[in-house]
């Protein structure tokens, strides 16, 4: 791995991809899209009270929230299957950037097509939702793999935190622009059109700012040859697994990460629908709430980096997971918008921190290797399969019980397993 920090231009250019694609994560997965999706899939009585969230997709009836979670689970399952094959090719040919570009363009163009998603085009909306998620996650496989290439171990916490901070700032700026359109509805546009315009803006923002990253990221040199898509993909993944047998701390950490990440990612994906369907919050309340999360998360990502310097990565992660358990317990009982705001603030503090610190902790625990994409593919496959299980479980319990609150209980269980896994990881007390 790289022993010296890359130039400031390369570091900032790398971080700009977080600026570019985090708009998708905020607008599409967290705020305006879930609110719009809920609005067009909810039936209300004459008093404006929701009485049905049932929808039909490809001839099958679903609870709308469950269908959304199933769609996300499908996207993450696809990328979990694809990423080990793609990342091994990227390592073998030194073309991380090319694959990163492909998924970036797939995701950003899918967001643009969401402009045409209406009540009568539910199938189009769900399919584009899946494609956008695949593009987002697929590009991150290669984006994350650049971290050990551009920064030495001692700098990786700060560089990783810079990426997340750029992401939060960039996404909040675009969110505010979209927020103005949705609330003020200028030029005679209705709320539905304003929401769909926001999806188009996300696609253009993602596509446009990503060009800064692609212009400065280096092409990583490699001596490997004869690597193809199908004959090396899972072989590389198996090689990583074999190495993990001799890296007990990393193996224990990945076990813990697998479970607590189920909880973190599912909360982030389901929070807005929970506020909309369970607490009946208005669109303006939900969007304001998510903005609070993003702003607090900027400070949270840097705070966790500083705490890790003093107390160690694994100890800080253990504490953060405990906070997540408390957040889920509070969410199960809240009944008001005020309660939702309080929970959102706590989520903001720990959300950016746990993502940034998880990525840099894994990077630190990795052995010396040039196959960074394969190692980060293993990391991403673990995360994606966890998300598949988490979102599917969340949606299935809602579909089964008709009450999203019961789905929160399974998230608490995931966090508990992750917490004890982190405690077990600390036995070697390396980080």
Strand order of the largest sheet: 1-2
Unreliable spans are none
Domain count:
1
Full CATH superfamily name: MFS general substrate transporter like domains
Task: Work out the number of β strands.
Answer: 4
Number of helices: 15
Kindly provide the radius of gyration, computed on alpha-carbon positions and rounded to a whole number of angstroms. 21 Å
Indicate the mean pLDDT: 83
CATH topology: Growth Hormone, Chain: A
Give the proportion of residues in helices: over 70%
Which H/E pattern describes the elements?
A: HHEEEEHHHHHHHHHHHHH
Shape: globular
How would you sum up the major sheet? 2 strands, antiparallel
Describe this structure in words.
By secondary structure, the protein is mainly alpha-helical. It has a single domain, classed as MFS general substrate transporter like domains (Growth Hormone, Chain: A, Up-down Bundle), CATH 1.20.1250.20. It contains 15 helices and four strands. The chain has helices at 8-28, 32-41, 64-93, 96-113, 122-145, 147-150, 153-184, 191-216, 233-244, 248-278, 283-311, 313-333, 337-365, 372-401, 404-425; strands at residues 43-44, 50-52, 54-57, 60-63. The protein has a two-stranded antiparallel sheet with strand order 1-2. A two-stranded antiparallel ribbon has the order 3-4. Helix 3 runs antiparallel to helix 4 (96-113). The longest helix is centred in the middle third of the chain and has 32 residues, at 153-184. It is globular, with a radius of gyration of 21 Å. The two termini are 19 Å apart. 55% of the residues are buried.
